[in-house]
Amino acid sequence: MEKTFGHIANAVARGAGRPTTFILCIALIAVWGFSGPVLGFSETWQLIINTSTTIITFLMVFLIQNTQNRDGAAVQAKLDELVRVSSGKNSFIGIDHLTAAEVEEIRSTCEAAVARAHSTEPARRASEGARKKNATNGKQSFSSYMRKGV
Question: Is 97 left (phi over 0), alpha (psi -120 to 50) or beta?
Fold first, then answer.
């Protein structure tokens, strides 16, 4: 039953997102609007649009939510696999199951690490440049000289 519902939800979500579906809905609303004077703007005329849009909206919520749940789970599984096979921290796998506060704490930690990396980047580049310059001149830098324990 879940697989059948998934297929129906996918088909409805794809169909609802097409431009022709939007144009069809606009046309139906226009027909309903133009029929108002003919039907004397009766309560039945109003009830037709109110009831139909309410029912369609109610059903679409569940179909679209099902599609989004499956799509989100698939994307998360792909991201987890990328983290697993890359040099990233495996501790990030499954963080989508944490509370919002826990995820925010991890995000803040990552942002702080990036900020530290960016703040040390100019100094690292300068020291690499000095080492390269000294290496090409046949000279040894003072810091590398001191690291050797002389």
Answer: alpha
